[in-house]
Amino acid sequence: MDVEENFTRVLQEFSEGKVQSEDLIPFIYDELHVLAKIQRRKFSSAETLNTTALVHEAYIKMVDHSHQNWETRSHFYSVAAKAMRCILVDHAKMHKAQKRGGDEKPVPFKEQLIRDNKQANEVIGLDDALSRLEKLSQRQSKVIELRFFCGFTIEETANILSLSPATVKRDWNMARSWLYKEIQKS
Fold first, then answer.
1. Measured between alpha carbons, how far is 151 from 23 in angstroms, rounded to an integer?
2. Per-domain residue ranges for the chain?
3. Cβ(149)–Cβ(84) under 8 Å?
4. 103: Cα separation from own chain's centroid
């Protein structure tokens, strides 16, 4: 049995109450670590993202919501993409507040996720535009989250969302164009 099938099986058993959340830890951690490595490469500086910190933050965020039944890998990846998006946006906002001398609490780990104001503005601008897109097209918003925040290919995204690669590619192109225009307006 390959890793994906095993992960899917454990998620299904969890949703059926056959396994405890503790049994999910190795699977969740491994999957989040892969996603965090992809996310780390999205930013130009090697020090921009601390992979372990992003994994830990995402894990905590997801375990806090472990009452959810992750019946499929698709659902798990959607939740993971949303968690990583929230983490990046929260840290971008914190970074901006600290730059303005705000009284924000310090980042809870040794290295910051967002290193400069430009990057913080980009992440916050993307999040704002993505929230507006979500109201217009949830499917396109999911495609952006999975491709941008999890780093999945068109084929992987199509598989996760049960869509054709052509549909994902079309949604990806349309959503990116729409987001670019929205971000430029801001």
1. 26
2. 3-185
3. yes
4. 27
Residues 6 or more apart in contact with residue 62 via CB below 8 angstroms: 28, 32, 79, 80, 83
What b/e sequence results for 97-110 when a residue is b if at least 16 CB atoms lie within 10 Å of its CB, and e otherwise?
Answer: ebeeeeeeeebeee
Per the CB < 8 A criterion, the answer to whether 114 and 88 are in contact is: yes
Tokens standing for residue 151: 């780093």
> Does residue 152 register a pLDDT over 80?
yes
Q: What is the pTM of this model?
A: 0.56
CA atoms within 13 A on the CB side of 152: 26
Q: Other CB atoms closer than 10 Å to residue 186's CB: what's the count?
A: 9
Task: Report DSSP state, residue 110.
Answer: S
Whether 119 and 151 have beta carbons less than 8 Å apart is answered as: no
The radius of gyration of the chain's CA atoms, rounded to the nearest angstrom, is 17
Tell me the torsion sign for CA atoms 80, 85, 86, 87.
Answer: positive
Q: Are 178 and 133 in contact (CB under 8 A)?
A: yes
Q: What is the pLDDT of residues 88-114, one digit of tens each?
A: 777 777 767 665 555 444 444 333 455
For 51-177, strand residue ranges (E) read: none
Three-class SS of residue 157? helix
Say how far apart CA 132 and CA 143 lie, in whole Å.
14
- Cβ contacts of residue 123 below 8 Å, gap of 6+? 88, 89, 91, 92, 114
